[in-house]
Structures are given as structure tokens and as C-alpha cells.
Amino acid sequence: MADCECLPKCPFFHDQMSNMPSTAELVKKQYCSGPNADNMKCARHMVFVVLGRDGVPSDLYPSEAGRADRILAGR
Ligand code: SF4
Fold it and tell me: What is the dihedral of CA 17, 22, 25, 29, to 10 degrees?
């Protein structure tokens, strides 16, 4: 799958994961970049698609799909 269009500017990697490089690599392979990545399952991307970049909380983790659903349900 193509890289997530958010990857170059995704604050998740530039802020939240800056001091956890090995965890960041695992998350990136799962959601953001590479043959097995699927950004459709990323909570950040789910919110981004509907609300845009400004609607994504900085502390939202890619695995928090349930939180993304609640954010989108409450809009
Ligand atoms: S898949 Fe999620 S965490 Fe990865 S770059 Fe896209 S929005 Fe950011």
C-alpha cells in the first residue's frame, strides 16, 4: 500500500514518538508505510479524513480507533 498521505507531516511521529524510535517503527509498518501498512485502520487517519488535520488531537494514537469513533460521533 502507498504511504499515508499524512506521513511527511504527521505530528504523531514528529512529536509523540520522537524518543521511542523502535515503537515508532512498528507503528509505522502497521499503519503508515510499507507493504503491510493500512492507514484506513489508523485512528488519526480516520479523524483526518473527516475533520481535517486540525481536527486530530495531538495525543491520539493510531491504535485508538474507538476514541476516533467517539470523536467523529460527537462532531
Ligand atoms: S497512518 Fe496515521 S499515524 Fe501514520 S502517518 Fe497516517 S495519520 Fe499519521
Answer: -130
Over residues 15-34, the pLDDT tens digits come to 777 788 888 889 999 999 99
Q: Cα separations (Å) of 26 from 23, 36, 39, 50, 74? A: 5, 11, 13, 26, 30
Distance CA 57, CA 51 (A): 11
C-alpha cell at 29: 509498518
pTM above 0.85, yes or no: yes
Ligand 1 pocket, residues with Cβ under 6 angstroms: 4, 6-7, 10, 12, 31-32, 39, 42, 44-45, 48, 62
Instruction: Enter the C-alpha cell of residue 12.
Output: 504523531
What distance in Å separates the CA atoms of residue 18 and residue 23, rounded to the nearest whole number?
Answer: 10
Ligand 1 atom at shortest distance from the alpha carbon of 48? 7
